[in-house]
Amino acid sequence: MIIIDKALQLCRPKGGTGLVIPATLLNQADTRSVRRLLATQGVSNIVNLGSGVFGKGATNTTISIIVWRDHVPKSIFLNDLKDIEPNSRPHNINKGA
Predict the structure, then answer these.
(1) Are 84 and 92 within 8 A, CB to CB?
(2) Run of H or E residues at 92
């Protein structure tokens, strides 16, 4: 995914960015190079937003990630909001729902 690479290029050294991307990025064989890029640059947060994030007709599942340029965090914060109603998700992101 070119947008991830470009977002990291635009970051300052040790700067970060947040992106909403398709969840399939985490498990498709043809996106292995993107996962490798994210792992080497430094993912600090992955939140499964589930489906319906972009309206009732949108069935694709999405994730939110925060990735750092040239900085690998000591841990990764994971959260799964897929079973929470879309209108309630913003209130549960930092609660470890």
Answers:
(1) yes
(2) helix 89-92
Distance CA 12, CA 23 (A): 26
> Beta strands of the chain (E only): which ranges?
16-22, 43-50, 62-68, 77-80
CA-CA distances (angstroms) from residue 7 to 24, 59, 81, 89, 92?
Answer: 19, 25, 25, 25, 26
Per-10-residue mean pLDDT of the chain, 97 residues long, equals: 84 89 86 84 85 75 86 82 72 57
76 burial via Cβ count (<10 Å: 0-12, 13-18, 19+): middle
Residue matched to tokens 């040790």: 14
Q: Retrieve residue 48's tokens.
A: 């499964």
